[in-house]
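quick one, 376 residues, struct below
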Amino acid sequence: MRPAPSTLLLVTVLAALPRAQDEVLIYKFDDGGGPKVINFAPPASPAPREATVRSTEIPGFAPGRFGFTAMKGSGGGTGGHTVLDTGWNGAFRGSFSVAFWMRQRTQHRSTLPNYFFYGSETGNATFRGFTGGIAGNGLKVRGASPANFDLTLTYDVQSAAAARWVHLALVVDGTTRLATFYVDGTPQPAIGLPDVPDVSAGTGSFLVGGNPLLDFSSGYDLDDFRFVLRAVSLLQVRTWALRSEARDAAFGTGCGATLTSSGGAPNLGSTTYTLNITGAPSANAVLSFGLSRLALPPVLLPFDLGAIDPRLAGCLWHSSADAVLPARLPASGTLNLLTRLPDDVNLLDVSVYVQAMLLGGTTLQVTNPFAISLGR
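---
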């Protein structure tokens, strides 16, 4: 018996929906600087919640394609030394997709490679994407794994990125063994693969913007970097090339209390987005909403609250507290705070950092910090 047309349509739609468990890295780079960058991939991601900036110079951020900031390019070639260490070992087998925005910061000699990402494998092999060197003015993605692949985009990304932000993506389908580059959401001719991609874990972690030796960093600002362990659809790539998306993520650790969300993504105009605070039953709470996680003037963040109360020694505060909201947890110990997000275009791509302090009897608790990147 054949399924009804409506059933077929539903199955097709569901199959096209993104599977969050396949998302490994999502860096929006809207942290405004500092030594850490939040990973907005879901908790199921094998990568840590925060990546670490490794640099031989002062870590810098530049105006972003979306939001306020992007990862600032270094000198390019051997002239700069800044990379983002994801803390993920970079091992995978099968389909994958990688996408990012790039804009030239430093003109460089095309004889030198500029790495956009770099993952060490077993032995001296590497999985990497770069322009310059043998890639010329195009983009090359290579994998020296058991299933070798060498994929080349001949489009002149260097000239394009010298004039504007350019969105690049590569979708590799391990089932069909086809790889497709995209430039600003437009697919290029598909490339056949000799085998299923198989990238083994090396001794280092997957890097964004350079290599482990810090001698061939990228001379390009990067924004909205993504790595997904599936072959995403044309529609998904075009969506990434048109706009940033609303995301939220817990990061850091709490002290006896937790802060999560429900009710969908933090889209502007949402009437269902909810912050969930769990802690001591009937505790009084103060929620802090800040636009920075770097400073609560004159204090630099994160700040050890043990300096204020010994009971909170080792508990770190991450929010600049531009606005505060008092609340009280019910007897169940969980408060579901419905947060109606204004439909204001001026708030598009704004990041807000939320944290709460709870007092229940003599019990003093602090939630984990929570990042909200507003979108639509």
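DSSP finds three helices and 32 strands in the chain.
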